[in-house]
Design a protein that fits this description.
Blueprint: E1 2-10, E2 12-13, E3 25-26, H1 31-46, E4 52-61, H2 69-82, E5 85-95, H3 102-111, E6 115-121, H4 125-131, H5 137-149, E7 155-161, H6 168-181, E8 185-190, H7 198-201, H8 211-227, E9 231-234, E10 237-239, H9 246-252, E11 257-260, E12 265-268, E13 271-275, H10 279-287, E14 296-301, H11 304-315, E15 322-323, H12 324-331, H13 335-338, H14 343-348, E16 352-354, E17 358-361, H15 363-367, H16 369-379, H17 385-388
Parallel strand pairs: 1-4, 1-11, 2-3, 4-5, 5-6, 6-7, 7-8
Antiparallel strand pairs: 8-10, 9-10, 12-13, 13-14, 15-17, 16-17
């Protein structure tokens, strides 16, 4: 059977973080109606995905862990009932450390969730406060212990660098304290200031680290994590051997995935589509079978030129980079000839390196990857501008 990833978006949060531009709503508004709508979506797509084996499930948000247990357990049952979830499927749930309960996690682990992603961001409480997080580092430590005791042996920790008031020394301290806990996976994201967020409204006055300090943090993290057994396999992701995120690898290898819920994105049967970023409108559209035209924000088929651009952009996010022979096999194009005017400069200036099979970013190149990819994809015209400027989580 063909393989498929399943993503489900739970937009509910107890508080909106000052930096977050993902779609979410504060509180429990219409949570029961939303779960009903997700159940209907499972029913609607069950036939379309009947020939697929779902080998990864990811519950993201928002904060899935604030959904009442009753609703979440019923929905998990529906997922297993309507999709061909493999016995060894990776099943991830995101959780905020302030919302984790022992009884809850034990039930979710028994129901099939086998990977937990905890968003801590920093080990410094002053930095957490600056971000608008609703938990302390001590809360996170308790939630980590609760998860271990509930049987989770595959835990991801989300961290950030470039946080207001953060210093190189405080960042090094955060890394040390996280590694001491021995999680299986660490995601490390550079704080992006988005105009639509509270941080965006005061970006000129935020006490942010300098760009030089941010690069120093990123460079140090790669070396430090490598020395402690975490292999970098993607720009922002580090894992112990065999613990790479199966679901996220689907995004970076152009594999198929189906997204359910408001604001969820899909790449399914050579089509990209996303559902509207509005909780009430989404619920009403799902329940009204005659209102399907109003449920998507975008819905388009990938043309050959876009496919090439996406493949380059996503493959170069991975530390293994581009395999030039594989690229030629898939697209019938010579990667080196396509970028003959750019590659020598990237190599000479230390942004790229030649591998045994092709090309990959260096640490320096990964840090400025969006700029390099933009110039590469513009150069390889025609490439859709939206792909060239693809977002970085």
């Amino acid at each position: 059977m063909k393989r498929l990833g399943l993503y489900v978006h739970f937009p509910f949060c107890l508080n909106k973080c000052a930096y977050c531009d993902f779609y979410s709503v504060v509180g429990y508004k219409n949570i029961d109606d939303y779960i009903d709508a997700l159940m209907l979506q499972c029913d609607d797509y069950s036939t379309a995905v009947s020939s697929y084996a779902v080998d990864s499930v990811f519950f993201g948000g928002g904060t899935p862990s604030i959904v009442p247990e009753k609703y979440m357990l019923e929905f998990i049952d529906r997922v297993y009932d309507k999709f061909n979830v493999t016995v060894d499927a990776e099943f991830t749930m995101e959780a905020n450390p302030a919302t984790v309960k022992a009884s809850q996690l034990k039930k979710y682990r028994k129901a099939g969730v086998n990977r937990l992603s905890l968003g801590v961001q920093s080990a410094c409480n002053s930095e957490l406060s600056a971000l608008g997080r609703i938990h302390t580092f001590e809360d996170f430590q308790k939630s980590f212990d609760i998860a271990r005791n509930a049987g989770f042996d595959n835990i991801n920790i989300d961290l950030m660098y470039g946080i207001p008031e953060q210093t190189f020394e405080s960042f090094c301290g955060t890394l040390k304290r996280i590694v001491e806990l021995n999680p299986e996976h660490i995601s490390l994201y550079n704080l992006k200031i988005e105009d639509s967020t509270p941080f965006g409204a005061k970006k000129d006055t935020l006490p942010l680290p300098s760009e030089d300090d941010e690069y120093k943090m990123y460079e140090y993290a790669i070396e430090f994590l490598s020395n402690h057994g975490y292999n970098q396999y993607e720009i922002s992701n580090f894992a112990k051997p065999g613990k790479e995120c199966v679901h996220n690898l689907k995004y970076w290898t152009c594999a198929e995935y189906l997204g359910l819920g408001t604001a969820a994105h899909s790449y399914f049967r050579n089509t990209r589509f996303s559902f509207i970023r509005n909780l009430d409108k989404f619920i009403n559209a799902v329940k009204d079978l005659n209102d399907e035209t109003n449920i998507t924000d975008e819905n388009y088929t990938i043309n050959p030129e876009e496919r090439v651009g996406e493949y380059i952009m996503l493959s170069l996010r991975l530390t293994q980079g581009i395999n030039t022979l594989e690229f030629e096999r898939v697209f019938g194009m010579d990667f080196e000839k396509m970028f003959s005017e750019l590659l020598p400069a990237y190599l000479e200036n230390g942004f790229m390196k030649k591998t045994s099979v092709g090309y990959a970013f260096t640490t320096k190149g990964m840090y400025v990857s969006n700029y390099i990819l933009s110039s590469m994809l513009d150069f390889s015209s025609p490439i859709d501008e939206n792909i060239a400027n693809g977002s970085d989580k």
